[in-house]
Amino acid sequence: MKKLIKKKGLTLNELLVVIIILAVLSAIIIPQLDIFSDGANKSACRANQRRLDSATDVWYAHDKANLKKEPTVDGLVTEGFISGPVSCPGGGNYKYNKATSMFECSDRSHSRSG
Fold it and tell me: Rounded to two decimals, what is the model's pTM?
């Protein structure tokens, strides 16, 4: 009588199929991670802009003489109206726009309208 031999482990072909499947899945998933990172940077930048706008409102309300001045990020941090440092995670710089009375990021992809 023949004894049945139980095989243990994977054959080389089965192992190659698993590796190929994992490679295809990683090729699909890894580029998506970069998209999530960009979205997170935009959200963080927009949140920073809102923080700066709120600090500017308090800065103006604190001293009416400030109405003649233009706020800066460094000025708001130095005077204690916002905890700093405040920087764009995407590398942009914040500048106050008198026309809109809001801070804007130099990185146009972080604009609040788009």
Answer: 0.69
| φ and ψ at residue 18, rounded to 5 degrees | -60, -45
Residue 23 vs residues 15, 19, 47, 103: alpha-carbon distances, Å: 12, 6, 37, 44
Is residue 100 situated within a structural domain? yes
- What is the per-residue pLDDT across 24-74, written as a single tens digit (0 to 9) for each? 999 998 888 877 888 899 999 999 999 999 999 999 888 877 778 889 999
Query: Quick check: is 27 in a domain?
Result: no
Amino acid at 4: L
Look at residue 72 and tell me if it is in a domain: yes
Residue written as token pair 């970069």: 34
- CA–CA gap between residue 84 and residue 39 (Å, rounded): 23
Q: What is the total count of domains within the chain?
A: 1
Please, which residues have CB within 8 angstroms of residue 33's CB and are 6 or more apart in sequence? none
